[in-house]
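Hi C.,

You asked whether I'd gotten around to modeling the 165-residue construct. I have! Everything is below, sequence then structure, no commentary in between.
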Amino acid sequence: MKEIGAFVQTHREVLLKQWLNQSLEMYPEQSRALMQQNLDTFSNPIPGALAQGLDLLLGGLCGEEGACPEKALTELGRLLGVQEMPPSECLGFLFALKPLLTKMASRKGWKEGFKTEELIEFGLWIEQRTLGLFDQYMEHRERIYQLKGDEMKQRNYMLLRRATS
């Protein structure tokens, strides 16, 4: 994926911004407008964390040293695991990268285009990251449900204890 990596490296900031805007479309319109205005991690953690995770994924795609896609998937899984959305909505933004990249390449006059082999490899890269993100998403969902179950058990125990005393 040398050509795709080189293209991403050259146009990384623009690609990241467009991918982030597309990714935020999973949220309702009012929330999305607020998120797009304020990307500060402290005052608005969702778009900041999402931007950081997407940037780490793009770094891995470029072949940057020190890029850790697993860390990105863990952070994104943690963020998306607490959202009240089905997995198809939460994880769909990964599939948006390929059409976004090819559209941007054609607009930027990338004369050679991308070879079919590279596009196939890129498609596999996206699928692998999606499966990894799904694993992280489910792990965090399970943890949340476990915490909720433990809290209910504790609450029932305390009610039963009060009733018997």
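If it helps when you're writing up: The CA atoms of residues 23 and 93 lie 5 Å apart.

Thanks,
B.
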